Amino acid sequence: VSSDLTVTGADRLVQQSRERILPGTAPGEDLHLEIVGEGDFATADMSLSIGPAHPATHGVFRIVLEMDGERVRTATPVIGYMHRGFEKLAEYRDYRQIQALVNRHDWLSGFSNELGVALAVEKMLEMEVPDRAQWLRMLMAEWNRILNHLMFIGSYALELGAITPMFYAFREREDIQALMESATGGRLHFTANQPGGLKIDVPKGFLKRSREISTITRNRLPDYKDLVLGNEIFHGRTKGIGPLPQDVALSIGVTGPTLHATGIAEDSRVTEPYLKYGEIDVPVPVGENGDAYDRFYCLLHRIEASLDIIDQIHDHLPSGPVNQKLPKMVKAPEGSTYVRTENPLGQLGYWLESDGGRSPWRLKMRTPSFSNVQAIPYLMEGQLLPDAISILGSVFFVVGDIDR
Amino acid sequence: VTDVLARRDRALTPEETEELLRDRLGDVVQRSVLEYGVFTLWISQDGWQRAVEACRDEPLLAYDLFDNLFAVDARNEGFDVVTVLYSTSTGNRIALRTRCDGGREAPTCPSVTGTYRGANWMEREAWDMFGIEFVGHPALEPRILTIENFEGWPLRKDFHLVSRLAKPWPGVKEPAETDEDGNVVHRVPQLGDAPGPYELDKAMAEQAKIANRLPEPETVEGEQVERATVESDRTEDTGVPLAGDVEQHLEDDQKLTHEADVEVAAQETAGVQDEAKRKADERRREQAEARARKAAERAAGDEEEDA
A94 and B64: CB-CB below 8 Å? Predict the structure, then answer.
């Protein structure tokens, strides 16, 4: 430490060597700085922990950012705060009880979660599910998808500083939730499926109301497009931010709107049709660049796609029974199967392995959020801190779906 | 979407897939199972990484979407690791399965993180849940889903669900509690499995008692002892008031005044309480009288009607 160096201005500082010496308050106490970054100003590495409780993380999710000034050097998600051991619990329940268990991990897509397990059990039992049950399952799964996407449209805009879309989204959500409640009794956890069909048929007037809400929601969609996609600030915050290349996305196992944004139209409803999706036209909106804007674009346009599907279902829905008489105890035969369904956030896979007993030997849940969140370290690397939040929200995930 | 569906013509059948992989890998492929629409190939441990790589890199297979990787308890033979791969170009899906080396004591499996990025967390999860060490994985620690310092491997079959052992399922809804015909069989916890309900209750009651224990009231004796000590320090009375003494006197005075206040307040409170009690009694008495009156009237009315 030397005290003879006097500093007159920033220009002079820059011209000095990379080691900076600033005068202290007393001789011999000068401040010694070392330039770490590339810029002209002295920066130092800093560790920034976002979460576990942060509004942008939708639950108890933590991400540790190693910052170089305003740039993110590495991002490390820390998960497991909401681990509830569903896979273990499922081994202690029979197949009907599991329905009430699995609709909880992704609390925004309860119906779609149940559906996978019911399909897996039916596949192993080689059960013929009545047509009406299959069409109704599709109808409810699509309404559930819209519920989920509306939530994310509202919350993503909120994370970027816009509060109005949230109110709009909840206005629509309320109608749809009331519709689902009238048929199932639940608003989030529907528990409407059972192996072999649905628990009960939909009530009188359900289809009429479903048609009405479909029209209302379709008429209100331009509001969202104008309000969010037509917003200059939104463009600035999302366009070109966090682009995900196709090969990286596939290697990680990213699915759902996040994969569609990269331009790959991989959607189980089209490529591996289950229920009656093979008999109708399923539009899959795709993006081009795989950035935050495209991810949001796909999410928003999937609502329109779902409404198209719903309208087709209204025209196709046959009459008849919605379930079949089950034995006192449903037992899947020995063996294993894998069922993959297109959940709102991506592809949900259930590996069901049975030893012939009344509970599964192993029920592995492949949840879309778990795989999608793995892309976050890749996406955030080298980005600015404000963009990190924009990226975090654009990889749509539910923490319960990650941690199970 | 139409592109994807058009390319389906080139998709290999499971038999062709197996033939191709046997041709490329040799004895590494052990056997194949096709059940419930899922094609599973059993792979030997030493060829695990090569097999996964071949599935990705063979142009005819092109399993590009990493779907899933997890472990399954294989009873006495140890553990299996399964990975599910999907091809976005052909629409085929394959499950590769291998039995881990090392039995139940120290299961190990080669890591495929070099082939698929997504295997990183999946393998960490399998390690967290089953204790399978993936050789070549960058960092299995810290445990991904369970808490730090968690002991045991939760998804192994010898890891019991403690809550089920300690507290039976309410009603008879637990599948394990009924026999083949649906009759109730009460499962008796094995000694040493987990604390039974009785012990657990006792322990909880003990804990609750400790947690709810009130602070011990300060005894008057304690104060006296203290004072005595203070006085015994001043055995040598010089007759001259010490500086400390004056302060002590002042403090004592204040204390006395305060105590008097408290006493007065207590008396007042007692008075108010007495008043309230008296009023409540009065009200109760009035109500009782009113009830009695009504009952009498009703009785009289009944009698009249009877008459």
Answer: no
Q: Which residues contact A154 (CB under 8 A, 6 or more apart)?
A: A165, A166, A167, A168, A169, A170
Q: Within 13 Å, how many C-alpha atoms sit on residue B268's CB side? A: 6
Bridge partners (DSSP) of residue A68 are A45, A71
Alpha helices (runs of H) in A253-367, residue ranges in sequence order: 257-260, 268-271, 292-316
ipTM associated with this complex: 0.80
Residue A165, min C-alpha distance to chain B (Å):
31
Spell out which chain B residues touch chain A, with contact meaning CB-CB distance below 8 angstroms: 1, 4-5, 35-38, 40, 64-68, 70, 72-73, 82, 84, 86, 88, 91, 93, 95, 116-118, 120-121, 129, 143-147, 154-155, 159, 161, 164, 173-176, 182
Across the A:B interface, residue pairs with CB atoms under 8 Å apart total 127
CB contact under 8 A, B72 and A124: no
Among the partner residues B37, B72, B84, nearest to A353 by beta-carbon distance: B72
For residue A372, give the chain B residue with the closest CA: B118
- Read off the pTM: 0.72
Q: Do A124 and B36 touch (CB under 8 A)?
A: yes
Considering A33-37, A249-253, B213-217, the range whose residues carry the highest mean pLDDT is A249-253
Cα separation, A40 vs A322, whole angstroms: 70
